[in-house]
Structure formats: C-alpha cells, structure tokens
Structure of Cytidylate kinase:
Amino acid sequence: MSQPELNGIVAVDGPSGTGKSTAARGLARALGAAYLDTGAMYRAVTLAVLRAGVALDDATGLARVAGETRLGMRTHPDDPGVLLDGVDVRQEIREQEVTGAVSAVSAVPEIRELLVERQRSLIDASTRPRGGIVVEGRDVGTVVAPDAGLKVYLTASADARAHRRTAQDAAEGRPADRERVHADVRRRDTLDSNRAVAPLRMAEDAVSLDTTELSLEQVLSRLRELADGRGLLVTDERAGR
C-alpha cells in the first residue's frame, strides 16, 4: 500500500509560538505536499523596507517598496526558502529588528492585497490539476484560502509560546531573552488581532487545536487524522495511478 498523500489545501493559522511552522512543515513532509509560510513573505517585505530606510508610518512608501521587491518562495518542506531579490534571507527575516516591524508593515492594505495575490498563485500552482499544500499564517483560512479543505487554528498558553520562541531563537543562534520574547508575543497578538485588514482570528469552520500539552508527534497525528477525515488523503491506487 502506497503512503497517502495530500490532495488539496490545509490551512494552519494561529498566533506566534503555537508551533505552526514546525507542524505545517512536518505535515507537508509526511504527506508529500508543498509548504508555504505566508508570514515569511511579510517578513521578507519588512526586511526590504528596513533596508530601504522607509518610515514604518509611511504607508505609501511601504507599499511602493513592496511592489518593487522581487520576492521568491521555495515550497519544498525539506528546503523552504525566502528569496529577496534572488538572495535567500531565511535567517535575516527572523532577526529582532524584522520581528519588531513586521506587524506595522503587514497592516498596510496594499501590501496585504499584493501578497495575498502571490500566495494564491503559489497555492494554485501546487494544487492544480492535482496536488496538495499546507499553508500557514494568520489569515489563511479566513482570507487567503477560504475554500481550504481543512482549516486548523492552533493555540497554546502564553508561557508555552514564549518558551518555544525562546528555544527556537537559541537553536538558531539568536539572542534568547524570554522576557523580551514574552513581551513580543503579547504585542504581536494585540497588533495582529486589532488591525483593520485581515485581523488574526479563527475561521468559523476551522478546528481549534490547543498544542500547549502536545508533543509534535501528537500534533501531527491529529492533523493527519483531520485531513483524512475530510477526504484529503489519497493513495496511488485511489488516484488511479
């Protein structure tokens, strides 16, 4: 029996530190699917804005930089990359300066419209005429892919989220200050949940999954069960290959 593969879209949303990236990549890898981190796209544009020296309250300038930026995304879960003007910036976009500015940049309506269009194009390329993609972010189920076959909203306690973010920073060689990370998590929650365009919220038809006490294996098992229950998993035999 062939391993089942994903045929369709799984949208994984939720605030920072809930394990979205690890879970979404792991699910995509296990199910032979593409993987897209929409937040990385906003971070890449934010990095471009910072390099251009545009003020964060200059919405027109921010939108101009976003429109001029050559942004590329690799969607293989084993090697997801973020290309800014042809250069991989996956490390730079996780730096504190970008983290502190990304909510302001992502709140600009023109930037969200531009990136949502690009995100939908990437999703379409990975799923037509057949295929699967796991997409993570903050507005995937509500805005980017409202027709996703499965929408999951991950949550976790504030302490668990701060701990995970701190551990991730340390593992990737960035300064790991738990108090600062905890403050960043609360600040981004407030900004992302209260922005005028595409605020962070759970889609009405999404499944809520609290990851506070769950291991990665348990989260992946639950996501796989949900995808299977929605009829999104196929094998070569079922697909008629």
